[in-house]
Every structure is written in structure tokens, then in C-alpha cells.
Please model this.
Amino acid sequence: MTYKDLFTNSAFVGSFPSYENLPEDEGQEIAFCGRSNSGKSSVINAITKNKKLAKTSKTPGRTQAINIFSLKDNPSKKLVDLPGYGYAKVSKAMRNEWAESIDEYLNLRTSINGLIIIMDIRHPFKDSDELLINWCEQTKVPVIALLNKADKLSKNKIVSEVSKAKKNLNNLTTKCEVIAFSSKDFFGLDGLTQSLGEMLGE
Ligand code: GDP
Model:
């Protein structure tokens, strides 16, 4: 089985304002989460080889919706782009709304097969990232800690950051993996698509 083109030409299913609006809870989903500016949209674009699929933006906090994409050859398998978090300018009410919608998604959505937490490799494991990891531990949702922007570091530093991250997640009982990645030069793309494919049972 080659995973290389599994996510190429994924289709946009829709944009949903909150958990209640999501389509039927069926098939298999992998969700993507990350602080604003961690590169969540760029990672989704890199995986799907579509520069425009998840809009990238230099303006943090632009989108609060849940966006869903489905695999070209199997629409029951989906990538779910959850709202970003950690914007300084967002009100407390909006932050609570974010937490509620993600908490509901992780606790209630039976089609969830895994959560990808996208972090800047230079500043990983901020409070909200840790909160998500704890939710995954409680709900036994498998996690990939994706250390993005690896192009900003030397090869040695990448290895040491991956090893530090693995130590940090050492005591988790839910399935978990650490992957260094760059959506700029596609470092780690083959490994990531393989892990995502396996999560989706491909
Ligand atoms: P989002 O807010 O998490 O969806 O982040 P975006 O995908 O919009 O990216 C935020 C900024 O980080 C943009 O300026 C991107 O060009 C940049 N960026 C994203 N991924 C990478 C990466 O792997 N390497 C580098 N150097 N920059 C990146």
C-alpha cells in the first residue's frame, strides 16, 4: 500500500459554525488542532497537495469554523480542521466557545480516529496544547504531536526537540507519536501521510 497520494485532491465538504452543525457522525475522521499561526492550514495544504484547500493567512483568529475535507477515493474518510486557539485578541467568551466545541468533538464524535496537534517546533507544548493532550488521554483518542516549521532548525536541533517531546509524552497511555515536519519544504511528509493513512485504517 502506498500512502503517497492518499490525500491528494481531497474535496471540501463544508464549513460548520459549531459542533451541533456538523454532518452525520459516520465514517472515520482525523482532526487537526493548533494554536493560531502554528501552521495548521499550511500543514493541511501540504498533506492534500493543494495550496488553496485550507486557507492560510497571516492574520490570526480569522476562522472559528470547523472545516471538513474528504478523501477523493473514499468520502467516508475525512480530515477535520478544528478552530485554531491562543489568539491574544479573542474575548474570553469566544475562548470558552472554542473549548466547548473542541471538548464536545473529542468526547462525543464517535468517528474520530485521531487528533493531530500542530505546534511550532521552537515553542511546543503551550498550555492549550497540553490541555488538548490531556483530553486525548482521558478520551483515549490517539495523538500525533506534529512539530511544524522544522525548516527553522538545524538537523541536530530537530532530533533533540523530537526526543524532548517524546519524553514529555512518555507517561501517556493513549497511542501517541511525535513527528517533525515542515510545510515549507515538506520535511517529514512521507512519514506523516503514512501515519495518517494508518490512523484511517488504510
Ligand atoms: P494557522 O494560523 O495555524 O492556520 O497557520 P498558517 O498555515 O496560516 O501559517 C502561519 C504562518 O506560518 C504563515 O506565515 C505561514 O507561511 C508560516 N508557516 C506555516 N508552516 C510553516 C513551516 O513549516 N515553515 C515555515 N518557515 N513557515 C511556516
Q: What stands out?
A: The CA atoms of residues 32 and 46 lie 13 Å apart. The longest helix spans residues 92-108. The beta strands are 11-16, 28-34, 66-71, 74-81, 112-120, 143-148, 176-180. The longest strand covers residues 112-120.
